[in-house]
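Reopening: structure tokens for the zinc ion complex, inputs below.
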Amino acid sequence: MIVKPYSETHYLEALNNLIRRLVLSNPKKEELENEYKRIKAGDIGEKVVMESLEQFQLPYDFFIFHNLSLLLESKIQIDVLFLTPYYVVIFEVKNIKGDIELRHNPRQLVRTLSNGQVHVFNSPEPQLEEYVHQLKRFFLNKGTNIPVYGAVIFPFTSSFIKQTSNKTTILLKNEIKPFLRNIPIKTSFLTNKGLEHMKGYFLDSHTEFSPYPLIDRYNIPREDILNGVLCKKCGELGMKKFSHYWFCPSCHFKNVTAHEEAIYDYFKIINHTITNTKCREFLGISNPNQFYRMIKKMNLNSVGKNRHTIYSLPEHRK
Ligand SMILES: [Zn+2]
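Re-run output (same inputs, fresh job):
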């Protein structure tokens, strides 16, 4: 059964808003757009894999985790983890279009598009081997020699995949279930209680990494991020504040709480904290009383008094 279901990469929306707020003169726009597309495609691939495992059954208990971050010898981020009493499998999901070649010496993933364009990516193989090694050591330290397998999944059959060695298991979506069913189960390494314990351990140990503020992560100067309130409907920047609502001059969309999204953008894109002045500047509001009324409703963490107040996101919104 699935115990940690599929969820979208949590900073995808903030990354999209960063791209919308980036000044045209910043040379990183294309790079960020590619990063956004790469994460989005990765999410779609992982979603498809998780969906294909939803109704899956085996004659023994198993637990499936999507996107599990664990601190072992280093921080590892597993796309899909399959835990059973007999074995463990780490799935690395790759959603990459085109003809794919996994090369050795050096290990690279080379992709050729139908128009002849060639792109070189990091090979998923060394990372997968490292994850398998670390998880194997983790279980050994817990006193069990349970087999840990790894496989790279290319969920979309449109790809033509060529491998220069057969060291790594490569699966298409329709091969995942037969692969799992064919894993030999001679010895049970975990009791029911042990399996439950490991499930709880993995769920408790999972720590979502924080990429915020995004301008630090992507090395972007603050002045390259445009102020203003984004319209949720058309994506344009520059909603105008009227007494009871925000109004988009581009598409005429009205929204009462548009400033809240903008303030969350500020925390995620620019800085963990915001002052009264900086916030009004960001939203384009001159009236301090109007500002206080708005920010009060948001239940942010605050330190200091009146105009010296520093606001930050409460723990559950981070
Ligand atoms: Zn609009």
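The chain has two domains: 2-205, 227-317. The longest helix spans residues 29-52. Marking as resolved unless the reporter disagrees.
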